[in-house]
Amino acid sequence: MKHFIFFILLLFSMASFAQDNQSFTISGSVKDTLSKKPIDGVTIAIVRAKDSSLAKITSTDKEGNFFFENLSRGTYRILSTALGYKKNYSRLLIIDGTDINLGTIFLSTDVTSLKEVVVVSKKPFIERKIDKTVINVDASILNAGGTAMEILEAAPGVSVDREGNISLKGKAGVNIMIDGKPCLLYTSPSPRD
Predict the structure, then answer these.
(1) Which tens digits make up the pLDDT trace of 73-101?
(2) Mind listing the domains of the chain with CATH numbers?
(3) Which of 135, 134, 137 is closest to 145 using CA atoms?
């Protein structure tokens, strides 16, 4: 009888552990309000509702689509920003067991009358190149107090597991370089380990 009760308790604990470690996705697309055409290169950020901290960031593709994966349970908002368009915050998104498709987000043009123009060049947070993806830390809102691992975790398509293993769109063996030089990143063990 003791073995049977132990076995039942073990099954329940494994089921609850599996539910806690599930990850979910959010997807959608962005279009211009007037022309209804997709907008390429819109920065899409997932921010936590409780403190507006950044969870993940990506940009739209040529068809205006975006996709986030490996999100844990929680309450989030989507912030969409693009040059020449007004910022757009989504409704509260509660991730509690299902993937979310937001459908289409429409951005309105931001018309402003300027007296003088000052052009300031700034690198984008994410640059896609033929053989690599470049993350410009200077353009990140995390660079003020974030670590390299926090910036990687927020990068599009990058997953970091509990052991600190880094994968890009599900593929392991990712080479991390800082200023063009190979770098090994280590994570400190979490308090639960």
Answers:
(1) 888 999 999 988 999 998 888 888 788 88
(2) 20-107 (2.60.40.10), 126-182 (no CATH)
(3) 137
